[in-house]
Design brief:
PepSY-ass_TM, membrane, transmembrane helix, transmembrane, PepSY domain-containing protein, 3 domains, Nuclear Transport Factor 2, Chain: A, alpha+beta
């Protein structure tokens, strides 16, 4: 005799089975993502925390370079400071000079050196005396910056960091599902606040779940404000923004040409918005005869200079007369017909202003934050928040909290996994080989739109997990 289960009970059983399958699915992918992402997240958290305090650290480590012995009153010409810096480092070519607004700060001249790492010369603006040099890539902050962006592997490293960041989104969302507070009383409370009285794996699980609940939104914010600088996602967003006129300022569009270089290819360390903006040619405001004469002025024998001291000072005077009191970053043209670029980069992007001048100091282009497209404005604001600049010290503290939380999450997650996993295997929950439900397909479509790199890599891993892993003994350890 076959016992019939009441329809209500059957529905409950089906719902419970569905919940268990869903839990195993999220747990399995949370584990896969965590084992891949955790080393990268730990590195990003530590290097990000260092870079949050880059000015404070550099000031503390190199005070004799970054500060002048006494406040300066009258500034020496930029040309004299650049010449002094180049003379101090034989065979070097100046590419940029940062002009301080604080009379106790030194100017920084960036130097390209043949067959050697680039250097920064610190010059006293009061007397144009070089206080010393350093190789930025060999400093603590410089090392953190290179690791944070590309693992010091160039473009391949940048793609690897981007892939890890995309998988971190999957890690966070699946973790929120698994660790969301459920039940009542102590069960709910210990999902919000770590249970410090628990022992062993129970303590680590409580710490992991509560920490994830508190910092998940912050970490997602850090991911999506960092991705604009990534190779694939950043280019994808930038292209879309520029296609709808929401990227770089319209004033640059007059210079669009098949052979026109971009601001980002001519100069390093420029605002995200201007990376792909076409570079205005200096000839736009210069007569050919004067341009030819100026482009062949030399700072010392054997070194070609594509700017003039008079033009440089005139450009700086124009910027200061416009009311700009912030420190200035001055990029020097390195090719004939190249334009001089000056911009301010304050903690709040609403104060960003970029100027391009010809070699005589005649203004070619001026673009400020209000000229940016809406997407570019949002990204510039996100970048400053990401770097801990926007709200000053409070912003740094909030982002440091996220970095510490990431370290706690990764450490507790790895400890839990190590204590639970069987010998010789990773201990992944069993997978459901039935047809994917509709909600999962909807999530896949949303992922394909928002994070194409994650979607493609997920398809590869899913296909491997579904058809290759179960059929090969080589991958039994992945169970």
């Amino acid at each position: 005799m076959v016992r019939k289960i009441p329809s209500g009970a059957a529905e409950v059983q089906l719902a419970e089975a569905g919940r268990r399958n869903r839990h195993r699915l999220f747990w399995r992918w949370h584990l896969y993502a965590g084992l891949f992402v955790a080393p990268f997240l730990l590195m990003l958290a530590v290097t990000g925390a260092i870079y949050l305090f880059n000015d404070e650290l550099n000031d503390a480590i190199y005070p004799e370079l970054r500060f002048t012995p006494a406040p300066w009153k009258e500034r020496a010409s930029l040309g004299h400071m650049i010449t002094a810096a180049q003379a101090h480092v034989p065979g070097s070519t100046a590419t940029r000079i940062d002009v301080p607004a604080d009379p106790q700060r030194s100017a920084q001249v960036y130097l390209d050196v043949a067959n050697a790492p680039s250097q920064i010369a610190f010059v006293n603006p009061g007397n144009a005396q070089v206080q010393g040099t350093l190789v930025p890539s060999r400093t603590l902050v410089g090392l953190a910056d290179r690791l944070h962006g590309s693992l010091m592997l160039g473009t391949p490293g940048s793609y690897l960091i981007e892939l890890a960041a995309c998988w971190a989104v999957l890690l966070i969302l699946s973790g929120l599902y698994l660790g969301w507070p459920r039940g009542q009383g102590d069960a709910w409370w210990h999902g919000v606040v770590p249970n410090v009285r628990a022992k062993g794996r129970a303590f680590w699980k409580s710490l992991h779940a509560a920490t994830g609940l508190w910092i998940s939104l912050l970490v997602l914010f850090l991911i999506f404000t960092g991705l604009p600088w990534a190779s694939f996602w950043g280019g994808w967003v930038r292209s879309g923004a520029e296609a709808i006129g929401a990227g770089y300022p319209p004033v640059y569009r007059r210079y669009v040409a098949p052979t026109a270089p971009t601001v980002g290819t001519r100069f390093n360390d420029v605002p995200w918005t201007l990376q792909h903006a076409p570079m205005p040619p200096a000839e736009a405001a210069s007569d050919p005869a004067h341009s030819h004469h100026a482009n062949h002025a030399t700072s010392r024998p054997g070194t070609t200079r594509y700017w003039t001291e008079a033009g440089l000072e005139r450009a700086i005077a124009h910027v200061r007369d416009a009311g700009t009191t912030d420190p200035l970053r001055v990029f020097l043209p390195s090719t004939q017909g190249g334009a001089l670029m000056v911009y301010t980069y304050p903690d709040r992007p609403q104060g960003q202003v970029t100027y391009h001048f010809d070699e005589r100091g005649e203004l070619l282009v001026r673009a400020g934050f209000d000229d940016y497209g809406v997407v570019a404005q949002a990204i510039e604001m996100g970048v400053q928040l990401h770097m801990g600049n926007y709200f000053g010290r409070a912003n740094q503290v909030v982002m440091l909290f996220a970095c510490v939380g990431i370290v706690v999450l990764c450490t507790s997650g790895l400890v839990m996994w190590w204590r639970r996993k069987p010998a010789g295997r990773i201990g992944a929950p069993g997978s459901d080989r039935s047809t994917p439900p509709g909600w999962l397909l909807a999530m896949a479509i949303a992922t394909a739109i928002a994070l194409p790199l994650l979607f493609v890599s997920l398809l590869v891993v899913w296909a491997f997990d579904r058809w290759i892993r179960p059929r090969s003994r080589l991958f039994r350890w992945l169970d």
